[in-house]
């Protein structure tokens, strides 16, 4: 009798869990994500419920969202006060509407009079950032997903220390969980203390201090601003090219990145994103009159817009930006993304572009550093290839970690955002949309270099994949929707 009651109780609780899940899980959630969570809860009820309670809410905690509302006001006001320069003539209507969309979702305004230079050599990029810090007179703002002091990056930290010694204000932000998982984290903390810079952790997981949110909501931005005159943003973290991981060193993996060095009014927009994150972690609202100098407005020919995104915003700003560009393209689309796991809307936008006669090239790595994402990405190759997308595999032992996107002849995007569901919904990201033929031409040269080094994946080759790979890819694809 006692055993029978336990069986009844078990099935009763199981039934109640499933009924509650049907009501709670799909609410305000994508159908694919809702279905994935329901499958997890129905197939493994207790483990599925625990996982849902831990990582099932794709937004920041309420207190953080309230802070984000204040940040959005700050970004709006900061955008209104940024120095204005004439935009390039001939703005198409679709581009004007896309700029308005970005602005309504929390972006900075489109600003003219900017210059930008692409940096694709890993160590030379670190050297360029170090050189810029050494030239600082007033302030240096550093924000990176991973900021690690090792033999490769030691000069960067030395430059921060020299800047502090010159009386320059140095502020540093680094993601907590990403760096906690990085070799040498304690050494990096000690080195930051030694520099004399003021530094803080982004989205810290410190429940004993009342700081806790979904563990995989991370700040993935990579920003350096010096004196309000020059900014660096793109895909590269501050760490050795191997990321100092034993497995990477054993496989000889090297990261391939792309960073934009920008000057002009848009630097104030990049700085506003840093200052908003600084306020989010410290409660200190740094005065723009003190921290932003007037940039040179004379020579730039690029129109730029800074687009922040992340779980603090109501909409998926980066996804909407990418979709708007995909549907606007008339001549050519080239996408570079290390982790390409599109949702249905992006998959349809890309394949629709091909069907309406717009060539689409996709650059991804031949090998992966994250098994789950790598297999989820591969699960989309057949649909893309059948639609006519040309997929180029960047060769091992390199991980093509660059994140950029060009359409037609005069619009490009570069930043920290991957084209995957994590970057769309869970990570705080920042993207730079650039209108200017010279910048897109430079980007095309980078893409042509990728093309020369890569090999094209064909549908015939892909259809020869072994069954075990297909099974792994499909299982990973299902798990990628758990948001």
Descriptive overview:
The chain has 483 residues and is an alpha/beta fold. Helix content is 47%, strand content 20%. It has a 16-stranded mixed β-sheet that branches. Helix 7 (154-165) links the parallel strand 2 and strand 3 (169-175). Helix 2 crosses helix 3 (45-55) and helix 7 (154-165) runs parallel beside helix 9. The radius of gyration is 23 Å and the shape is globular. Mean pLDDT is 87; it is low at 289-293.
Summarize the helices and strands and which ones pair or pack.
Layout: H1 2-24, H2 31-43, H3 45-55, H4 62-81, H5 93-104, E1 111-119, H6 122-134, E2 139-144, H7 154-165, E3 169-175, H8 176-180, H9 185-195, E4 198-202, E5 218-219, E6 222-226, E7 230-234, H10 246-251, E8 254-256, E9 259-263, H11 266-282, H12 288-291, E10 302-309, H13 317-328, E11 333-336, E12 340-341, H14 344-355, E13 360-365, H15 371-378, H16 381-387, E14 390-394, E15 398-400, E16 404-407, E17 411-415, E18 419-420, H17 421-425, E19 427-435, H18 437-453, E20 455-457, H19 459-462, H20 467-479
Parallel strand pairs: 2-3, 3-4, 5-19, 8-15, 11-13, 12-18, 13-14
Antiparallel strand pairs: 1-9, 1-10, 2-6, 6-7, 7-9, 10-19, 11-16, 14-20, 16-17, 17-19
Helix pairs in contact: 2-3, 4-11, 5-13, 6-7, 7-9, 13-14, 15-20
């Amino acid at each position: 009798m006692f055993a029978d009651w336990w069986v009844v109780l078990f099935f009763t609780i199981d039934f109640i869990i499933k009924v509650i899940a049907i009501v709670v899980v799909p609410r305000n959630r994508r159908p694919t994500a809702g279905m994935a969570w329901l499958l997890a809860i129905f197939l493994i009820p207790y483990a599925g419920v625990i996982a849902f309670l831990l990582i099932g809410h794709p937004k920041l905690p309420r207190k953080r969202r309230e802070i984000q509302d204040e940040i959005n006001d700050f970004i709006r006001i900061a955008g209104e006060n940024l120095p204005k320069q004439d935009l390039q003539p001939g703005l198409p209507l679709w581009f004007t509407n896309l700029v308005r969309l970005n602005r309504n979702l929390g972006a900075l305004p489109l600003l003219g009079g900017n210059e930008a230079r692409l940096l694709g050599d890993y160590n030379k990029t670190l050297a360029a950032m170090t050189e810029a810090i050494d030239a600082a007179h007033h302030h240096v703002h550093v924000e990176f997903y991973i900021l690690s002091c090792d033999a490769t990056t030691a000069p960067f930290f030395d430059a921060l220390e020299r800047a502090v010694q010159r009386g320059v204000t140095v502020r540093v932000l680094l993601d907590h969980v990403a760096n906690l998982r990085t070799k040498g984290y304690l050494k990096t903390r000690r080195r930051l203390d030694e520099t004399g810079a003021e530094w803080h952790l982004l989205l810290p997981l410190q429940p004993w201090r009342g700081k806790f949110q979904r563990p995989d909501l991370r700040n993935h931005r990579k920003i350096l601003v010096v004196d309000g005159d020059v900014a660096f943003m793109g895909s590269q973290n501050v760490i050795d090219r191997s990321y100092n991981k034993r497995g990477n060193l054993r496989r000889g993996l090297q990261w391939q990145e792309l960073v934009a060095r920008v000057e002009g009014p848009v630097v104030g927009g990049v700085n506003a994103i840093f200052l908003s994150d600084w306020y989010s972690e410290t409660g200190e609202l740094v005065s723009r009159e003190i921290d932003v100098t007037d940039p040179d407005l004379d020579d730039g020919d690029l129109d730029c817009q800074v687009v922040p995104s992340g779980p603090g915003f109501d909409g998926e700003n980066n996804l909407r930006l990418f979709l708007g560009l995909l549907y606007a393209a008339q001549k050519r689309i080239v996408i570079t993304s290390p982790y390409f796991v599109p949702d249905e809307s992006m998959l349809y936008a890309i394949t629709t572009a091909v069907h309406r006669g717009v060539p689409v090239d996709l650059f991804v790595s031949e090998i992966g550093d994250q098994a789950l994402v790598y297999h989820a990405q591969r699960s989309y190759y057949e649909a893309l290839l059948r639609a006519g997308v040309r997929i180029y595999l960047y060769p091992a032992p390199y991980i093509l970690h660059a994140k950029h996107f060009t359409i037609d002849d005069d619009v490009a995007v570069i930043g920290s955002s991957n084209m995957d569901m994590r970057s769309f919904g869970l990570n705080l990201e920042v993207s730079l949309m650039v209108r200017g033929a010279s910048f897109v031409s430079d980007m095309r040269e980078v893409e042509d270099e990728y093309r020369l080094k890569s090999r094209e994946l064909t549908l015939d080759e892909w259809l020869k994949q072994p069954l075990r790979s297909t099974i792994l890819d499909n299982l990973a694809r299902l798990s990628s929707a758990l948001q």
